[in-house]
Amino acid sequence: MTVQVDVTGFSTAGAGSATTDTFGGVSDIHSLALNVGSGPNGTAHLVLVVGIVGVGAPAGASTMTSVVWGSQTMTQIGTSSASNGDLWLFGLLAPATGTQTLALTWSGTNQMQVGCASFVGVNDSSFASAFTHFTANHSSLSPNSVTVTTSAGDVAMAAHVTGGNYSTPGNIDIGHNNSGALNSGAENYDTATSPTLTYAFTAGSNWSSIGVDVVQFAVGPPPSLPVGLIGLAASEW
């Protein structure tokens, strides 16, 4: 079963100088506009991935302590706090459908931006099975880039941060925000096998990127017949 996108959503930057903020919901706080389960591909083996970018303070200034979708607590997939920005990826198996509110709590003064995608056809037998091959990359000069190891049928998703202004995604875009106090944030994804996810920006600046492999649900082979039944017509079983 190939992983398919359900819906994506992207926010503007949240409130500055805060340690809590909410996104989305029925009032669409910070323009997240995420209605999980409303896409064209059904809801079988549904998961949610949230990329979070600290766009209002230097790296290391914040620690994400809680991410909650509706009433469901999400689990951290991975994080990066290099000298060029704070990034997090969080995941959730079987997320509640609809326009839930995404609530973030963190320590340290910062300003958060989020980019989200829900996927169907994912190996949701366990959290560790659904989200693998987390990786991070840091450098300077455009574009951001991170290569995520995947298998055919998986999807890779990435979050990016830079001190420049984002312009052009090299993969399937979720969105970008250039209105942060110090940094800009972006998220994108790709269905190719082991893709390099990139996002171009203007003005030279250090950057960080993180990515994860969202793993497809494995459909096993059909059950085999007992040896004594092989070659018999159904009426002879």
SSE arrangement:
Elements: E1 4-10, E2 18-24, E3 47-54, E4 63-69, E5 72-73, E6 75-82, E7 85-93, E8 101-110, E9 112-120, H1 127-130, E10 131-140, E11 144-147, E12 155-162, E13 165-169, E14 172-177, E15 184-190, E16 196-202, E17 206-214
Task: Describe the protein's architecture and organization.
This protein is mostly beta strands and 237 residues long. The protein has one domain (4-236). The protein is 2% helix and 52% strand. The protein has 1 helix and 17 strands. Strand 4 (63-69) and strand 5 (72-73) form a beta hairpin. The longest helix has 4 residues, at 127-130. The protein starts with a strand and ends in a 23-residue tail after the last strand.
Notable features of this structure?
single chain; mainly beta; five-stranded antiparallel beta sheet; 52% strand
For the CA atoms, what is the radius of gyration? 20 Å
Distance from N terminus to C terminus (CA atoms, Å) equals 31 Å
Please trace the helix and strand order, writing H or E for each element. EEEEEEEEEHEEEEEEEE
Helix content: under 10%
Note the total helix count.
1
Q: Percent of residues in beta strands?
A: over 45%
Biggest β-sheet description? 5 strands, antiparallel
Shape: globular
The count of β-strands is 17
The average pLDDT value, as a whole number, equals 89
| Number of spatially distinct domains | 1
| Order of adjacent strands in the largest pleated sheet | 1-9-3-7-6
Query: Based on helices, strands and strand pairing, what is the structural class?
Result: mainly beta
Low-confidence stretches: none
